[in-house]
Each structure stands twice: as C-alpha cells, then as structure tokens.
C-alpha cells in the first residue's frame, strides 16, 4: 500500500473559516472603543435599513418550551446569507446561566460557503443597543438628555452607552425589581461617566425622563408602564417584549402612541402590538430612515419603538464584524469545511486520513 504523505492530508485554505470567540470579540470592541464600535455598528444597520427591499425577509423560526425559546433568525441579500441562533430563558439567571446566548454565521450566496462564524451573545447586546439608539435618533425628543431604564439586567449598560453615543443621553434613572441588578448597573454606569439616579419604583424612574427604556425578562404579559406614567412628548424604547405572551406596556399606552416597528409580520406576533387588532396602524422604520414617511413630527407626540429584534440587524452586525476581522486580527482560522482534492471524492479523503 502506498504511504500517504502527511502534508497531503493538511487542510487547504478553502477548509478554514474565520471564527470570532468571546475573547476575541471583547478584544475587538476594546480595540475600537465601546461607543465607537456601537456608532459604527449603528451606521451599518442604518445603511441596511435604507436598502430594506433588497433582503429576503421572514419572521424568525421559534421553538417554544416551558422554560424559554430557541430561535433561528435568517436573512439574505444578493451577496450574503446570514443567520443567528439565539435563546431566551428567563429562569437561567437563577441557575447561573445567561438569559440570552447566541452565535451566528455569514455565508457567500455565490457558493454557499460560510465566511464567518462568530459568537453573538455580546454582539447581540451591542446590535440591540445600536438599533435602539439609531431609532432614537429619528424618534426621541430634540435635545433629550434623560433616560429612564426600567430593567437593569444584561442589556442595561449597552443601551445607555449607545444612547449617549448616538443621541446625547447624559442622565439615567434606574429601576429594577431586584436591587442587586441596579447595584450592578449603577456601579458600571457611574464608572462610564453617567449621572445616575437610583429610583424606588417605575413611577419614580420616569419622572423627568424624555426617553423611557423598558427591558425586563419575564416571559409573561406584564404591565411595566401604566397609562398614567406616560406623559406627552416622550419616546418609549420597548425592548423587553419579544415573543408571544410577553409584553411590558399597558394597552392604553399603545392607543395613545405612534408605533414604529421593524417588520410588522413578526412584531404583530411577538411585540407589544400583539395586544392590538391585526390592522392597527404602525410605521415601518425602514421607510422613516429612507425619508418616505415622518418619524417624530412634534414635541407632544408619544413615539413608541416596539422592538423585537429582526434578522437584518444581525446580518448588519455579521457583515460589520467580518469587515473588521478581514486583516486576520481578532479571529482564529477554524478547520470547518471538508476540502478533498477531488470535490467528488469525499470518501477517499476520509479513508486516506485513517
């Protein structure tokens, strides 16, 4: 039997895919600076929203269980296909796990080969905050400086950093049912230079706030904001309600607000507007960003971003990271794809490796 030269069994360049680990994602963000990274990411998301009709779009594929949900979020344009795997398990924190974890893949449409594999637990937190603040640029009251943060979990600080970078928010009013969460958020945000006020109730948190962010995790119909808590002229950034049966706002608030959404077909299933009739009018954000319809029209208007997260935002994040690691920094080359000398001889490659 002819001896096989070990060098002949080494993977070729086509076998390798750049992989961004959690460690490398943190290094990548620090290399650019958190706020600069968020600003760049928001620019990518905005650019993709402005070409919204070019994308394949579908509501995410969700598998619900008693304890949470596991979702796949796919989309594609003419050049790339991307998807994210993400879970949401509110009970996880009590057991020492993250509530949300994720990873994602970006591929070439031309040949189907993946061109990036990356962690997306951190990246999802960053893209969620970047999207919220990007929307805030269009909908928040002019000159807004004060934001209420109701729900001080893992997303809290990312939201604050993004709203400062893109919208000029300087002062934060924090509330959480768990004082330990507020302890954590207050410590982290003061270290970042924010003026932070701890509040004893949601009612106290919204006093004087021009932007109200709700970000709670419980998978249930909840009333985090009641109608009497919301005055004229505010912008509500509702990011906690993101699956069927999970809401944060009283229905009456929705009826008083101009509602802006990512993708109506998904938001009507998962967002705050699942409480309303199927034909209740909403405005799609891509049309606002393209200048086709108005965002905030006057100082008294209540604007509501009914945020559930959509795959195009993840696609933007994947392309953004792919460009940042194109020089080979902040990634590893993962031997992920079989690459036999003869594309038809996959079995031969296997047997020669024995």
Characterization of this structure:
This protein has 354 residues and is α/β, with parallel strands linked by helices. The chain has two domains: 13-122 and 312-352, ornithine cyclodeaminase, domain 1 (2-Layer Sandwich); 131-309, 3-Layer(aba) Sandwich (Rossmann fold). The chain contains eleven helices and 17 strands. The strands form three sheets. Strands 9-8-7-10-12-16-14-15 form an eight-stranded parallel sheet. Helix 3 (121-139) crosses helix 4. The longest helix has 19 residues, at 121-139. The radius of gyration is 22 Å and the shape is globular. The relative contact order is 0.17. This is Ornithine cyclodeaminase. Pfam families: OCD_Mu_crystall. InterPro entries: NAD(P)-bd_dom_sf (IPR036291), ODC_Mu_crystall (IPR003462), ODC_N (IPR023401).
Question: Layout of helices and strands, plus pairs?
Answer:
Blueprint: E1 16-20, H1 22-32, H2 34-49, E2 61-64, E3 69-76, E4 80-88, E5 102-108, E6 114-119, H3 121-139, E7 146-150, H4 156-167, E8 171-175, H5 179-191, E9 195-198, H6 202-205, E10 211-214, E11 221-225, E12 235-238, E13 247-249, H7 251-256, E14 258-261, H8 264-270, E15 283-284, H9 285-289, E16 303-306, H10 311-324, E17 332-335, H11 346-352
Parallel strand pairs: 1-6, 7-8, 7-10, 8-9, 10-12, 11-13, 12-16, 14-15, 14-16
Antiparallel strand pairs: 1-17, 2-3, 3-4, 4-5, 5-6
């Amino acid at each position: 039997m002819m001896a096989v030269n070990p060098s002949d069994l080494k993977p070729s360049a086509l076998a390798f895919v750049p992989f961004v680990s959690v460690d490398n994602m943190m290094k990548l963000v620090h290399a650019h600076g958190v706020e600069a990274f968020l600003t760049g990411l928001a620019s990518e998301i905005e650019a993709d929203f402005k070409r919204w009709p070019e994308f394949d779009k579908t509501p995410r594929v969700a598998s619900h269980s008693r304890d949470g949900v596991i979702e796949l979020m796919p989309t594609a344009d003419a050049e790339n296909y991307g998807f994210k795997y993400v879970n949401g398990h509110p009970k996880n924190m009590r057991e020492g796990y993250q509530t949300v974890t994720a990873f994602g893949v970006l591929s070439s449409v031309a040949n189907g080969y993946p061109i990036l594999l990356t962690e997306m637990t951190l990246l999802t937190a960053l893209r969620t905050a970047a999207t919220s603040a990007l929307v805030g640029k269009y909908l928040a009251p002019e000159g807004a400086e004060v934001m209420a943060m109701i729900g001080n979990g893992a997303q809290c600080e990312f939201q604050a950093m993004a709203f400062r970078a893109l919208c000029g928010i300087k002062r934060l009013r924090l509330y959480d049912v768990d004082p330990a969460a507020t302890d954590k958020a207050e410590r982290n945000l003061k270290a970042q230079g924010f003026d932070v006020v701890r509040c004893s109730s949601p009612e106290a948190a919204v006093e004087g706030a021009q932007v109200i962010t709700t970000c709670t995790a419980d998978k249930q119909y909840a009333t985090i904001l009641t109608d009497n808590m919301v005055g004229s002229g505010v912008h509500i950034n509702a990011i906690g309600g993101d699956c069927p049966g999970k809401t944060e706002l009283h229905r009456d608030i929705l009826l008083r607000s101009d509602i802006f959404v990512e993708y109506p077909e998904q938001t009507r299933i998962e967002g705050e507007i699942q409480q309303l009739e199927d034909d209740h009018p909403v405005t799609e954000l891509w049309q606002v960003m393209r200048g086709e319809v108005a965002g905030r029209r006057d100082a008294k208007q209540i604007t509501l971003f009914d945020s559930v997260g959509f795959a195009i935002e993840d696609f933007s994040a994947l392309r953004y990271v792919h460009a940042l690691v194109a020089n080979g920094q902040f990634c590893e080359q993962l031997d992920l794809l079989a690459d036999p000398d003869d594309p038809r001889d996959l079995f031969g490659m296997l047997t020669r490796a024995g």
